[in-house]
Each structure stands twice: as structure tokens, then as C-alpha cells.
Design goal:
14% of the residues lie in helices and 46% in strands. The longest helix has 14 residues, at 23-36. The strands form 3 sheets. The protein has a 10-stranded mixed β-sheet. The chain has 226 residues and is mainly beta. The protein has helices at 23-36, 54-57, 61-70, 103-106; strands at 3-9, 12-19, 46-51, 74-83, 92-100, 114-117, 125-129, 132-136, 144-147, 151-157, 160-163, 173-178, 182-185, 188-190, 196-204, 207-212, 217-220, 223-225. β1 and β2 (12-19) form a beta hairpin.
């Protein structure tokens, strides 16, 4: 069993997830927590989902947000930090905040496997999706894309890019200009120091490689070969 809490704070309602071992058990706990608070929420109220350890649970963020919205609650932002249950006035300490891109662009509907977003993702904004993501625009410093599938950026990618968030090591990342703060595919992470144009990031032998598109051979729809 994990440790979760649902609290009313100065930021509004915060669903705090400290730790958990099994995602299905977590969903049961979340559903029970919201059932206990039935009648306390307005139809248009957005809540915050707060994780104590974003890196540890980053692979599950898409499913957590999707589940919360599936049971009828809108998620407005992802917070990273800690909650002190003994403090009543301001029980949360926030280390990081990611505001989700508006509902029309964010694409949490599982019926649409590829989400196309035509806008710039700015610092403090996040796109979280259970399928592939295509961004026609720039990913600015401090912005983040988390996708269970592949990511394509027709523009400059300077923020954080996480593909294959559910563990799919065959996921790839393409960007017209690849210059991100961090690249993650499944559980593998790298930082690149030099800008690469027309670039593809993919896994090979347990390591993430970043190469120009014309040097990469594709042998399957979601895989590459040397």
C-alpha cells in the first residue's frame, strides 16, 4: 500500500502521492479518497497532483493524470514537493510546478493515440500523453513533454523530453533542432552539450544516441538500426 493524502490548501485541492508499490492499488486509494470527499468539489474545479519524487514515478504520470480525469476531476498542474500533515495553514512545500497545457491541446484522451499540438510550450508548462506526441512549435527551457510513445518536435526542443514513459525502449524522439535540458527514453537518461539539427534520439545497446536524421536507418515503424 502507498501513502497518499487529499488536502485543501491555499493553492486549492492537492492530491499528494508520497509513495506506492503498485499502480492499480494506488488507483483504488485515489478513488476511495475522492469518494470520501464527494460533494466538496465544484464541476469546474481543478486540482493539483503532487508527487514527492517525480523522477521515481515519472513513468506513471500519464496514467495517474488520466485516471484522475477519468473519475471526473480536472488536473490543473503537477507539483513536486512534500506535504507536512501537522501544518494546517500551509501544509505543502513545492520544489517544482508544471502547469498542464490547456485541455484542447494536452490530449489525455486515450482514443487518440497521437496528439498534435500547435503552440509553444513555455517554462513551467507540461504536455502529458499516453500516446505519441507531435509538437509543431518550440519547447522552451523549463517546459516538459512526457509521452508513453514517440515524440516529434517540429521546432526547437530546449526543455525536458521524456519518451516511452511506460517503459517502451523502442520509442524515439525527433526534433528539428535538438538542444534539450534532458532526454529520457524509458528509464535511460542523457544530457547533451551540443545543439544538433534535424536529429533523432533513440536507444541502442542500453544507451541513448543522438544522430542526424539522415544517418539513422529505420527498420520498423518505432525502431531503428545502425
Amino acid at each position: 500500500m502507498g501513502t497518499i493524502d487529499l488536502r485543501m490548501t491555499k493553492r486549492g485541492v492537492v492530491l499528494y502521492i508520497e509513495d506506492y508499490d503498485d499502480l492499480d492499488d494506488l488507483f483504488v486509494q485515489i478513488k476511495n479518497k475522492f469518494s470520501q470527499m464527494n460533494g466538496f468539489f465544484s464541476d469546474d474545479e481543478k486540482i493539483s497532483v503532487m508527487l514527492k519524487d517525480k523522477e521515481k514515478y515519472s513513468k506513471d504520470i500519464t496514467e495517474i493524470v488520466s485516471f484522475v480525469e477519468k473519475i471526473g476531476f480536472k488536473v490543473g498542474e503537477i507539483l513536486v514537493g512534500e506535504m507536512n500533515q501537522k501544518v494546517k495553514q500551509n501544509p505543502i512545500s513545492v520544489r517544482e510546478k508544471l502547469s498542464l497545457v490547456d485541455d484542447e491541446a494536452r490530449g489525455l484522451q486515450l482514443l487518440n493515440p497521437t496528439k498534435v499540438i500547435k503552440k509553444t510550450i513555455r517554462s513551467g508548462q507540461a504536455v502529458i500523453h499516453d500516446g505519441d506526441v507531435m509538437l509543431i512549435g518550440n519547447l522552451n527551457d523549463g517546459g516538459e513533454i512526457i509521452s508513453a510513445g514517440n515524440i516529434v518536435v517540429i521546432g526547437e526542443a530546449r526543455g525536458v523530453i521524456r519518451a516511452g514513459s511506460k517503459g517502451n525502449e523502442g520509442s524515439i524522439i525527433y526534433a528539428t533542432i535538438m538542444n534539450p535540458e534532458l532526454i529520457q527514453i524509458a528509464t535511460h537518461v542523457i544530457h547533451i552539450s551540443e545543439l544538433v539539427e534535424d536529429a533523432v534520439a533513440y536507444l541502442r545497446g542500453g544507451k541513448i544516441l543522438v544522430q542526424r536524421f539522415d544517418l539513422v536507418k529505420f527498420n520498423q515503424p518505432s525502431n531503428v538500426s545502425d
